[in-house]
Amino acid sequence: MDTSTKGPAFLAQAEQWIDSQPELLVLFLYSRAAGRKDYFLIRSVDSFQQALASLPPSTSVILLPDAEFPLRGIADKTLLERALALLPEDSEFLILRLETDGVAWDGVGHGELAEQVAELDGEQLAVGLYPPWYLDTADIVEAIVPDADGVVRRGIY
User: Fold this and answer.
1) 50 strand-pairing partners
2) Is 68 helix (H, G, I), strand (E, B) or coil?
3) SS3 for 94?
4) Which of 65, 100, 111, 114 is most buried, with most CB under 10 Å away?
5) Of the candidates 51, 55, 46, which has an alpha carbon nearest to the alpha carbon of residue 19?
6) Cα separations (Å) of 65 from 2, 32, 85, 89, 148?
């Protein structure tokens, strides 16, 4: 049985992770939305609760407490050079635009990374390895937004 985003265990875990680190990466997978997904760097319990309240039923909410985005700054040649030095050549990466909620780009390898950073020139970005959200581990927690009657129905992603 799937966990509800309104369940006390899920909410307690989210709150504990939010309170214990500067930010928590949260992934929203939207049901029946052609693969749409958004990433958010959550910095407070209030902002997490606000985000949950706006989600449609059957959205999958995945908490990724170990995701790290060690590179922050304005997309330019310097940020790209730092990213190329940090990320292995064939690694999957994730870029988050910090000034817009949920907007992210991913790819594989230095070539795609260079293209993405060039396209985002002048934007405030966070760059890191792509988080393994599809793995079922104790460090990755998922819950589903229930419908109006409180029933949890896993969506089609």
Assistant:
1) none
2) coil
3) strand
4) 65
5) 46
6) 20, 26, 24, 25, 28
Amino acid letter, 34: A
Supply 42's token pair.
Answer: 């959550």
- For residues 15, 28, 26, 1, the Cα torsion angle rounded to the nearest 10 degrees is 50
Cα–Cα dist 80/114, whole Å: 7
Q: What are phi and psi of 144, to 5 degrees?
A: -115, 140
Q: How far is CA 70 from the centre of its chain?
A: 15
- Per-residue pLDDT tens over the stretch 19-51: 999 999 999 999 999 999 999 999 999 999 999
Token couple for 67: 């995701």
Domain residue limits, the chain:
8-66+133-144, 71-129
- Measured CA to CA in angstroms, residue 34 lies from 21, 99, 130, 140 at distances of 32, 24, 20, 23
